Amino acid sequence: MFMFGKRRSSFTRRLEKARKRRGDETRRSSEDEAKGFLKKLNDDQLEILCTAVEGRGRDASNCVLLPPENQPHVLCCQTWRWPDVHDSGELKRLPVCSSVADPVYICCNPFHWSRICMPNRICMPDSPPPPYSRFAKERLKPEDRAPSEMPLVCRDTYPGSLTTDGEDSMMNPREWCKLAYWELAQRVGPLFPVEMPSVNVFGDVPIGDGLCLKTLAHHSFSPPDSVRRTRCKIGLGVTLSREDDGVWVYNRSENPVFVNSLTLEEDPDSPSPTKVPADYCLCVFDPVKASYQNHWNFANCYGPIDTNSVRISFVKGWGRHYSRQEITSCPCWLEILLAPCR
């Protein structure tokens, strides 16, 4: 009995230490509330929570289940992640959480939750834009363009033949998208097909199954230092998830990502990405809005573009607020090629 009590006390002390280390003076929940929450957990739950908090989500596969009264998951997120969260409406469960359908309990693992990014744009330049910008089509050769920037022929097959290396594969009916990883204007590695409802894309920290960019980079050209530095900052990367209301991106890294899709774009003639801060999530593709937009002939300076593609740049932004005028100037970025082409 003494041994079990000592084990419990050890987990409690470690969690208290983690809570204070992250900014005790700014937390919303009181110290008594945090201690009361820990008393509700058994030893195994304390161990799971301790592993998740100390690893900052790197090993957060297990759930910590409690009755949903008084929103214990909100208290847990306030205590170990975001002291300024006010209610459950600001949170969205990550696809990694296995208890989403549990009718009795709610998961209180704070790293099974993400903050919902508001649709308003947060575009802060990291350096002043150049005094002028020539059209991107004058700087890029056709073979350097992304698949979704090539001339489109809408059909029921996946537009794999439009990729830069001549790939021409039929779309597997089970695949809902393929991923293309880019470093600057260079496609790196083969297209990555996705069949499962969600997929992880990470730098060098494996989070379950998914696309490891470090592995792909072994087959890359010799990149400049800016690419290597950016790739090292990707960390846990992003989780992409196909859900009932569209495609969501969960930013699990410690740096922002920048997302562009026509269902997010307010001005197609002057595209600008939406900034998704670390720990936030955003619906980046709305099929209802996309079906409406497909009645229009969208084009940018490259020519026609695929309304069913989403682009994500890690760490660095691009567009009218940045020195990088097009995404092909970003060090590390991802293209989500959704299917079918409508």
TrEMBL record:
<keyword id="KW-0862">Zinc</keyword>
<dbReference type="InterPro" id="IPR013790">
    <property type="entry name" value="Dwarfin"/>
</dbReference>
<keyword id="KW-0479">Metal-binding</keyword>
<protein>
    <recommendedName>
        <fullName>Mothers against decapentaplegic homolog</fullName>
    </recommendedName>
</protein>
<dbReference type="GO" id="GO:0005737">
    <property type="term" value="C:cytoplasm"/>
</dbReference>
<keyword id="KW-0804">Transcription</keyword>
<dbReference type="GO" id="GO:0006357">
    <property type="term" value="P:regulation of transcription by RNA polymerase II"/>
</dbReference>
<dbReference type="GO" id="GO:0070411">
    <property type="term" value="F:I-SMAD binding"/>
</dbReference>
<dbReference type="GO" id="GO:0050793">
    <property type="term" value="P:regulation of developmental process"/>
</dbReference>
<feature type="compositionally biased region" description="Basic and acidic residues">
    <location>
        <begin position="22"/>
        <end position="33"/>
    </location>
</feature>
<feature type="domain" description="MH2">
    <location>
        <begin position="176"/>
        <end position="342"/>
    </location>
</feature>
<dbReference type="GO" id="GO:0051239">
    <property type="term" value="P:regulation of multicellular organismal process"/>
</dbReference>
<dbReference type="GO" id="GO:0140416">
    <property type="term" value="F:transcription regulator inhibitor activity"/>
</dbReference>
<dbReference type="InterPro" id="IPR008984">
    <property type="entry name" value="SMAD_FHA_dom_sf"/>
</dbReference>
<dbReference type="InterPro" id="IPR001132">
    <property type="entry name" value="SMAD_dom_Dwarfin-type"/>
</dbReference>
<dbReference type="GO" id="GO:0009653">
    <property type="term" value="P:anatomical structure morphogenesis"/>
</dbReference>
<dbReference type="GO" id="GO:0030154">
    <property type="term" value="P:cell differentiation"/>
</dbReference>
<feature type="compositionally biased region" description="Basic residues">
    <location>
        <begin position="1"/>
        <end position="21"/>
    </location>
</feature>
<keyword id="KW-0805">Transcription regulation</keyword>
<dbReference type="InterPro" id="IPR013019">
    <property type="entry name" value="MAD_homology_MH1"/>
</dbReference>
<feature type="domain" description="MH1">
    <location>
        <begin position="10"/>
        <end position="122"/>
    </location>
</feature>
<comment type="similarity">
    <text>Belongs to the dwarfin/SMAD family.</text>
</comment>
<dbReference type="InterPro" id="IPR003619">
    <property type="entry name" value="MAD_homology1_Dwarfin-type"/>
</dbReference>
<dbReference type="InterPro" id="IPR036578">
    <property type="entry name" value="SMAD_MH1_sf"/>
</dbReference>
<keyword id="KW-0539">Nucleus</keyword>
<dbReference type="GO" id="GO:0060395">
    <property type="term" value="P:SMAD protein signal transduction"/>
</dbReference>
<dbReference type="GO" id="GO:0046872">
    <property type="term" value="F:metal ion binding"/>
</dbReference>
<keyword id="KW-0963">Cytoplasm</keyword>
<dbReference type="InterPro" id="IPR017855">
    <property type="entry name" value="SMAD-like_dom_sf"/>
</dbReference>
<feature type="region of interest" description="Disordered">
    <location>
        <begin position="1"/>
        <end position="33"/>
    </location>
</feature>
<dbReference type="GO" id="GO:0009791">
    <property type="term" value="P:post-embryonic development"/>
</dbReference>
<dbReference type="Pfam" id="PF03165">
    <property type="entry name" value="MH1"/>
</dbReference>
<dbReference type="GO" id="GO:0071144">
    <property type="term" value="C:heteromeric SMAD protein complex"/>
</dbReference>
<dbReference type="Pfam" id="PF03166">
    <property type="entry name" value="MH2"/>
</dbReference>
